[in-house]
């Protein structure tokens, strides 16, 4: 005879359900429609979901994982004592207490994510996508329409159709980190103004105008692959804007694989000058940290100032292994901008 949990008062039911792990709670919720309706009484709305499509894993509250096995894992799967969770889904709990699952024909990873999300009525915190694993646009649209806060982290790796990538960039809100590594077909255009702390973009579709519009991010990483159209003009406009206060959040900017004419430079500062090392003790090099992570080190470069008293360094690293003794008309390399509050430096470093 089973325990009549559905007949308990709601407070008692909620306290009992709160003792279950997210995996146990999911299995319970699939027993019946009535069981599914009371799952939120466990305070599952406070849960957070992270989706790693590369590994086909959905993680709840960082420690409880649902791992989706591929069809070629069927022999491994059949060696375990499995059970039917719902029609079309079989699973077993592994030694770590996580749930390993294999789907029937009617289920997909996208549908399963939505199923868990709607059962718990919680928040999807991050989505990591790799080509062909998810119906990405459909999933992101569904999440955004059914939760009250933006996704914190979105990572896209692999080629998407132009219209799909355009729709995602223009419509999906991301609050902390947006990372896109994707090539596009000729003719791709997009107008988007991200409002996230960290922006990491790689592709042949990043333009000067687009880069200059990223005035709401603190750390910007751009990989300017062959075929892209970024120029030193955008860097000059950003640094000029930073000095005037138009980029109040900007702390770090790196643009990889960009060509700079030495007679143009950035804000009139040549790559030769940015290569030239300061006479400093290496122990005095200033590490740039963001969100607890070291993202660069400003041991050398040209020191500049903003109108609000902030200090920054412009640093150039030549991909041609040039030094400050070799002057060329144009160079190909990595541009970096480090911003610090003036109080972060020992006074002797401010000249």
UniProtKB/TrEMBL annotation:
It comes from the Eukaryota. This is F-box domain-containing protein. It comes from Caenorhabditis brenneri (Nematode worm). The lineage of its organism: Eukaryota, Metazoa, Ecdysozoa, Nematoda, Chromadorea.
């Amino acid at each position: 005879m089973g325990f009549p949990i559905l007949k308990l008062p709601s407070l008692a039911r909620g306290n009992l359900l709160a003792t279950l792990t997210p995996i146990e709670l999911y299995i319970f919720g699939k027993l019946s429609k009535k069981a599914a309706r009371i799952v939120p009484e466990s305070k599952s709305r406070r849960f957070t979901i992270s989706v790693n499509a590369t590994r086909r894993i959905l993680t709840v509250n960082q420690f409880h994982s649902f791992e989706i096995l591929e069809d070629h894992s069927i022999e491994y799967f059949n060696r375990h004592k499995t059970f039917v969770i719902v029609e079309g889904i079989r699973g077993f709990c592994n030694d770590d207490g996580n749930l390993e699952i294999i789907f029937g024909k009617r289920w997909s990873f996208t549908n399963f994510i939505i199923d868990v999300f709607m059962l718990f009525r919680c928040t999807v915190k991050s989505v990591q996508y790799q080509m062909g694993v998810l119906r990405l646009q459909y999933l992101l649209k569904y999440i955004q329409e059914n939760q009250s806060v933006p996704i914190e982290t979105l990572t896209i790796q692999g080629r998407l159709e132009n219209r799909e990538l355009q729709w995602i960039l223009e419509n999906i809100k991301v609050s902390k980190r947006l990372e896109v590594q994707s090539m596009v077909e000729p003719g791709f255009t997009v107008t988007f103004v991200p409002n996230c702390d960290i922006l990491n973009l790689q592709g042949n579709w990043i333009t000067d105008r687009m880069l200059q519009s990223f005035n709401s991010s603190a750390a910007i990483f751009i990989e300017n692959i062959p075929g892209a159209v970024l120029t030193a003009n955008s860097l000059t406009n950003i640094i000029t804007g930073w000095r005037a206060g138009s980029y109040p959040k900007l702390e770090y900017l790196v643009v990889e694989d960009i060509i700079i004419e030495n007679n143009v430079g950035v804000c009139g500062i040549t790559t030769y000058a940015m290569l030239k090392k300061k006479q400093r003790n290496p122990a005095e090099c200033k590490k740039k940290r963001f969100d607890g992570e070291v993202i660069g080190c400003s041991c050398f470069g040209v020191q500049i100032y903003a109108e609000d008293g902030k200090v920054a360094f412009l640093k150039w690293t030549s991909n041609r292994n040039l030094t400050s003794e070799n002057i060329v008309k144009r160079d190909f390399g990595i541009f970096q901008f480090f911003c610090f509050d003036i109080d972060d430096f020992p006074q002797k470093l401010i000249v």
